[in-house]
Write a structure and sequence with these properties.
By secondary structure, the chain is mainly α. 72% of the residues lie in helices and 0% in strands. The chain contains 15 helices and no strands. Helix 5 runs antiparallel to helix 15. The chain is elongated, with a radius of gyration of 26 Å. Keywords: Membrane, Transmembrane, Transmembrane helix.
C-alpha cells in the first residue's frame, strides 16, 4: 500500500531554512471568487436587437420598457406634475393655492412611471419565465417578490392622492409618497430584525427557511429581471449568501441603511408639509424625494463596490467564514 510521503522538520532546520520562511518563499495559491453578474447585457443592446429582429417583439419590448422606466418615472412623477401645478398657480394664485381639478390631474400623472416599470417586469417574467423567473417558480403567475411588493406599494399611494385631491386635504395629498416608504420601511424592519421561518416559498427560497433582509430580495429581482442577468445570476447570488457570512452581514447593514433612510425622508417630508405653504411644499416634497433616492443610491453603489473588493480579498486569502 502506498504511503503519504513525510517531510522531516529536522532536515529543514538543518538546511538552514525554517518552515515559516519556506512557506513565505512559495507563491500563495489564490482563487478568485465567482463573479455574480457575468452577462454583458444591458437594455440598450436589446433595444437595438428589437429594431433589427421584429420576431423578438415579446422578448425585447419589455427591455424597451425597462430601459425607459427611470426616465418615465422622473417625467411623470416630477416634471409633468410640477409644470402643470405651477403653470396653474401662476395663472390663478396666490389664492387659491390648490384646486381639486389640478390636483386630480396631477394624480393621473403620478404612478404612471412606476406602472410602466411594473408592466415591463411582469411582461418579461411572464413571457421569459424560463430565463429570469425565481428558481422555485412553478408557473408564470407567481412572478417574483419584487413585482408583488412593487404593485402593493403603488396601490398604497393611490388612496391618499385621490382622497387628498377630492376632499382638498393638502397635507394628506403630500403625504402619499410617505405611505409608500413607510410600507417599505416596515418590511425592512421586520425582515432584518425578526428573521422568522417562511410559511411559503419566496423567490428562490424554500418554505421553512429563514427570511432574508428585504434588500436581498429586491437586489436579486432587479438584477435578474431588470438587469437582464437571468436565472444564472440567481443561482450564484443565493449560493454566495448561503456560504459567505460577510455577504450576509452586508445585506443586514444595507437593509438597515435604507430603513433609516426611509425614516429620514418621512421626517423631512413631515417638516416640509407642516411648516411651508402648499405652493412651496408641492415641488419641494417631490424634489426632496428624488434627491434622497439619488443620494442613497449613490452611497449604495459605492458601498457595494467597496464590499465586493473586500470580500474578494478575503476569499483569496482564505478568511471567509461560511
Amino acid at each position: 500500500m502506498a504511503t503519504r510521503p513525510t517531510h522531516s522538520r529536522g532536515a529543514t532546520v538543518a538546511s538552514g531554512v525554517t518552515v515559516a520562511s519556506s512557506r513565505r518563499s512559495l507563491p500563495s495559491l489564490r482563487r478568485r471568487e465567482t463573479k455574480l453578474m457575468q452577462k454583458k447585457a444591458h437594455p440598450w443592446q436589446h433595444l437595438g436587437r428589437f429594431q433589427r429582429h421584429t420576431c423578438c417583439v415579446y422578448a425585447d419590448l419589455t427591455c424597451a420598457g425597462i430601459t425607459l422606466g427611470l426616465p418615465m418615472v422622473l417625467l411623470f412623477d416630477l416634471v409633468v406634475p410640477c409644470i402643470a401645478y405651477y403653470v396653474w398657480y401662476d395663472n390663478h394664485g396666490p389664492n387659491p393655492k390648490y384646486d381639486r381639478g389640478i390636483l386630480g390631474g396631477a394624480v393621473a400623472c403620478f404612478g404612471f412611471g412606476e406602472l410602466w416599470i411594473l408592466l415591463a417586469r411582469v411582461w418579461r417574467l411572464f413571457f421569459r419565465r424560463e430565463e429570469c423567473a425565481p428558481l422555485l417558480s412553478r408557473n408564470r403567475w407567481e412572478l417574483d417578490a419584487t413585482s408583488w411588493v412593487y404593485g402593493v406599494a403603488v396601490l398604497i399611494a393611490v388612496p391618499p392622492f385621490v382622497i387628498g385631491a377630492e376632499r382638498e386635504i393638502p397635507e394628506l395629498y403630500l403625504y402619499s409618497p410617505c405611505f409608500i416608504f413607510g410600507f417599505l420601511a416596515i418590511l425592512m424592519f421586520i425582515t432584518t430584525l425578526f428573521p422568522f421561518k417562511l410559511p411559503i416559498g419566496i423567490n428562490s427560497q424554500a418554505r421553512g427557511t429563514r427570511i432574508r433582509p428585504f434588500v436581498f430580495y429586491a437586489a436579486e429581482d432587479f438584477i435578474a429581471v431588470d438587469g437582464l442577468q437571468d436565472r444564472e445570476f440567481r443561482v450564484r447570488y443565493n449560493e454566495r449568501y448561503e456560504h459567505n457570512a460577510m455577504f450576509r452581514r452586508f445585506f443586514f447593514w444595507l437593509t438597515l441603511f435604507w430603513f433609516f433612510g426611509c425614516l429620514i425622508y418621512i421626517g423631512c417630508a413631515s417638516a416640509i408639509i407642516w411648516t411651508l405653504e402648499f405652493n412651496h411644499a408641492f415641488g419641494l416634497i417631490f424634489g426632496i424625494l428624488f434627491s434622497w433616492i439619488g443620494v442613497w443610491a449613490f452611497i449604495t453603489w459605492r458601498w457595494v463596490k467597496w464590499e465586493m473588493r473586500r470580500e474578494r480579498k478575503a476569499f483569496e486569502e482564505g478568511t471567509v467564514d461560511a
